From TrEMBL:
UniProt KW Iron keyword: no
Domain spans labelled Reductase C-terminal: 319-383
Listed name of the protein: NAD(P)/FAD-dependent oxidoreductase
InterPro entries linked to this entry: FAD-oxidoreductase/Apoptosis (IPR050446), FAD/NAD-bd_sf (IPR036188), FAD/NAD-binding_dom (IPR023753), FAD/NAD-linked_Rdtase_dimer_sf (IPR016156), Reductase_C (IPR028202)
Domain FAD/NAD(P)-binding: start-end pairs: 6-300
Pfam families in the cross-refs: Pyr_redox_2, Reductase_C
Keyword annotations: FAD, Flavoprotein, Oxidoreductase
Needed co-factor(s): FAD
């Protein structure tokens, strides 16, 4: 294959920015273009459901200032998304009409929140994902409004936690009988539920929203399947994410709940890789889509290595963290997906413990609460197995 001299990265989030930095660190000295759909400087998303709700200072979440991208000799295109990819000619078009050539294209288009379309147009309904939606939600929460959260996943519960800390009356409606049911062992789910309740968050578990009323362009109340009506000033929908695959699908790449890639993160076109939230790739023999900072960073580094001639399969140890109800919870491997038994490890206080999950005798993943060293030990153990 001829040498790669023009790399374009579509998407300037966690994965895209890390791809650019990794390429330069690994000695890539060709053209580098980082294209962002968003008009602002690239920023981190994890604080959006945590500290940014209290303190919406952009300087706290930007990855770098504008000068940094010049130092990296990277052309940063802001507010001008990639609209089409012409694979036979290895060019892509931006919304502004500009055409850009590439030898290798990295798709780092991320994911977006799953929406309840009937509610999306209402002014007090939030599907939190970007800087603007977090800033607008934070403004409401800092005024101590009542908040209803539909869905008890990680991001939603972080928002519920921040809202309770800001003095809001918070109700969570979750259709499963426990929170984070698919993600963490029961001991962790029960522990977090107690912590949230102790901080004043109310839960309606095993209930779904079946109807709602509006007042002009605002949502006024929701009705759950047991006939209860819950009124709230602000409604947050936290029911998961969907990968941004439109660009890939339009370009004729294989897409199946994510841009389909092989163990090297090559898509069905060898000149195009996919990373981060948008890619579905084989891990331990199963196709997976991971949505975490760890995977965005690791897959970015992996693709940068591929582009600079270091070929290897991508075999990450997945890990993730969440800050909620006053504790840091860290996960490594697959603590919940499949296990035969769990082992409880007591920590130095009531608010610190770990749960290890096993498939037969094999350690497959674990969750720690307030035990960062145990988390690192789990990651090392999983990497070595
Ligand atoms: C509120 C929130 C809290 C989170 N908290 C945590 C946490 O505590 N721990 C953790 O591990 N992970 C967390 N995550 C997940 C983590 O932020 C993501 O997994 C990570 O950002 C994925 O990186 P990415 O580069 O794939 O996508 P993103 O960072 O989402 O970036 C994708 C970018 O691509 C742009 N884009 C899309 N289409 C185009 C196009 N056609 N042209 C140009 N640009 C395009 C998008 O606008 C976006 O800017 C959180 C996510 C959110 C939303």
């Amino acid at each position: 294959m001829p040498p790669i001299r023009r790399v374009v990265i579509a998407g300037a989030g966690q994965g895209g920015v890390h791809t650019a930095a990794s390429l330069r660190r690994l000695g890539y000295d060709g053209d580098l273009t980082l294209v962002s759909a968003e008009p602002s400087l690239p920023y981190q998303r994890p604080p959006l459901s945590k500290t940014f709700l209290r303190d919406p200072d952009p300087a706290h979440i930007d990855f770098h200032d504008a000068a940094h991208y010049s130092t990296l000799d990277t052309r940063l295109v802001l507010g001008d998304p990639v609209t089409t990819v012409d694979r036979p000619n290895q060019t892509l078009s931006l919304r502004s009409g500009e055409t850009v050539r590439y030898d290798h294209l990295v798709l780092a288009t991320g994911s977006r929140p799953r929406r309840i379309t009937d509610l999306a147009h209402l002014r007090n309904v939030f599907h939190l994902h970007d800087r603007d939606s977090s800033a607008a939600l934070g403004e409401q929460l800092r005024e101590g409004r009542s908040m209803l959260l539909a869905g008890g996943g990680f991001i939603g519960l972080e928002i519920a936690s921040a809202a309770a800390d800001l003095g809001c009356a918070v109700t969570v409606v979750e259709q499963l009988p426990s929170i984070l049911a698919h993600a963490v062992p029961t001991q962790v789910s029960d522990f977090l539920l107690d912590r949230h309740r102790a901080r004043g968050v109310r839960f309606r578990l095993g209930r779904s929203v079946v109807a709602f009323t509006t007042d002009g362009d605002r949502l006024a109340s929701v009705t759950t399947d047991d006939g209860s009506e819950i009124a709230a000033d602000v409604v947050v929908v936290g029911i998961g994410s969907v990968p941004c695959t439109e660009l890939a699908a339009h370009a004729g790449l294989k897409v199946d709940d994510g841009v389909v890639a092989d163990t090297r993160l090559h898509t069905s076109d060898p000149h195009i890789s996919a990373i981060g939230d948008c890619v579905r790739f084989p891990l331990a023999g199963r196709p997976v889509r991971l949505t975490s900072v760890q995977h965005a960073m690791d897959s970015a580094l992996h693709v940068a290595k591929q582009i600079t001639g270091r070929d290897a399969p991508y075999r990450p140890v997945p890990w993730f963290w969440t800050d909620q109800a006053g504790v840091k919870v860290q996960m490594a491997g697959a603590p919940r997906a499949e296990h035969d038994r769990t082992e409880f490890v007591a920590g130095p206080s009531d608010a610190a413990f770990a749960v290890r999950s096993f498939l037969g005798d094999r350690f497959v993943g674990g969750v720690t609460v307030g035990m960062p060293r145990e988390h690192l030990a789990m990651r090392r153990e999983l990497a070595a197995s």
